[in-house]
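Structure tokens please, single chain.
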Amino acid sequence: MKFKPRYRNTIPEFRNFGIVLVCAILVATSCYQRTYIPARTRDFSVQSTKDRSRPIPRYVIHNLNDSVSRLYFAVKPGDLLFQRSNVTNEMLANFKIDYIVHPVENQKVITDSGYVVFSNIQQTTTEWIYGYTDFDVPRGDGQYFVDVVLRDINKMSTAYDLQYISHSGRDAANNFVLMEPNSTTPIYGNSVGADQEFTIQYNDATITKLHVAYYKNTSDAARPPYALPVVTLPIQSDSSWTVDLSQSATMKLPLEGYYRFSTAPMSDEGILVCRFKEDYPKVTTPVALLEPLRYITTKKEYNTLGSSTHMKIAIDSFWIATGGSQERARELISAYYGRVEIVNTHFSTYKEGWKTDRGMVYIIYGEPQNVYRSPEKETWVYGTDQSGNTLNFVFTRNTNSGFPNDFELERNQVYNVSWITAVDYWKQGQVYRAR
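Here you go.
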């Protein structure tokens, strides 16, 4: 198999940072329909942890046209290892991004693959380093996934991810991309803040307007893992209108809920964008502090806290009573709401991350030892095979919601005892970590 070099604009962007000399080298394969067995033993747990031993990159994919897609990436400088150069004596980072593109319906086939190396990246105080690389997608309709690997060359650490591509029709979700105003930087994730301005880019310049459908956020928190899920009925939009698609037209989302942007009215496809509560994904308001407590409180306790005249004081008192002291309460608050912020960041769909099945499991049980992922499923493993006492949670990707990050737990009565044990730990003033 021969490699054909293809050079593209892949220089990372350093916001509010001076001139940086970066060497980017991209090599991509050009042969199609090669067979490949995806690695099922890769550990994806880095995607849901505060551990900084490995980078936690973020990705966005935009279909530039019917045969080329662009993979945007963002990585925090603090996640990379900067080492002093023997030549310039500067502190420099080096990392590499590998990608392999597969059709979902034939996962052993490779439609494109390649890598890009970013060398001699200077140390910066900016929050993120941005960049992108392009890859080929066969013409025609279809669903694809991209096996992405980011390797920190200095640290010798690796972060894995699977990204999904909708390539079916005019309103395929990846035909759209959210962009920050007057910038070439996309917005990572599916939500924007109350006062956050953004633009939408569509891959067909002849489309000048988009149709918008608004849906209220009526979703509830996930039920315990042993309880059957509530059957949800199709939700009708509350209102609809059109927006200008010119690059100079910025927009905001006025109400909490989610919005579907599409090229045709009444479309069931398009890009979905959420607007959650103030400061989301952070947990700062009394309501944001209260709501995730429903996983460890009785209905009576929760309603009492919610009806309190001074909700914040009542919640503080709840944690002090649970921990037995202010010091212990601070530890519990830091652990519990730290997990809430992590799941809000990584697991949000049409509802807040803490309301999702993965969010619920993470908040109560903590960080899994391993996360194994395929295009259809995600398996969280607590404990080790050597211990003979592992607890596994299997989540199936919901392909009908319009959110590629939407996974539903395969519920089972076997979780009953472990759930009661975990909740009891929290109520006894102990941070629960399943091991």
